[in-house]
UniProtKB/TrEMBL annotation:
SUPFAM superfamilies: D-ribose-5-phosphate isomerase (RpiA), lid domain, NagB/RpiA/CoA transferase-like. Keywords: Isomerase. Homodimer. This is Ribose-5-phosphate isomerase A. Its EC number is 5.3.1.6. Belongs to the ribose 5-phosphate isomerase family. Catalyzes the reversible conversion of ribose-5-phosphate to ribulose 5-phosphate. Pathway: Carbohydrate degradation; pentose phosphate pathway; D-ribose 5-phosphate from D-ribulose 5-phosphate (non-oxidative stage): step 1/1.
Amino acid sequence: MTQDELKQLVGQAAADYVNANVPEGAIIGVGTGSTANCFIDAIAKTKSRYCGAVSSSLATTARLKSHGIEVFDLNDIKSLSIYVDGADEIDHSGAMIKGGGGAFTREKIVSSVADVFVCIADASKRVDVMGTFALPVEVLPMARTAIGRKLAALDGVPVLRVTKDGMPFITDNGNEIIDVKGLSITDPRALEAQINAWPGVVTVGLFAARGANLCLLSTEQGVECIDYAQQV
């Protein structure tokens, strides 16, 4: 199977899981990226079961609306039973690196409200130690250089994310992203807390303090369901 086929497989599996476990009339939290897009396309087939969704990015909002799914502002809802999103890396505890698409700050906000975080990914995203995928850090533009020095002191290589034309990549929040290469993240909770405490950091793309509750992992043999609560 190609990677696109694996993403479509797990996107459909996530839609099946939501349809089986989330009550009718609920609002669903939806992440950003190519795997999340596969989930959106799959859940659109049963959109009449739900009131709508809370989106983690402008791109996701556009895709949801293209399917006729109403998008709610997070400030206007009282509860969110589930959040579904992909990951760039996920370890055996359910901690993740997210942010390849640049929407990780909003993803972290929406996922923090949800009762259950379902990560959807293909098997290549599961790792023993995170850090092969560059760790993104969203920063206020004026703090870029200062934060870069702090990240370099962690033995990482900080690189400003740029667009194809060489200009700084700007997030939906109007900030910049530093991608940190060369890390070996053996204590993701501690590193998340450390980086988040630096003035000028909006957030780091580590989802460890609030990791995934469940992972649907697509493989050549089908979709594996990993419940991290049962592994404790």
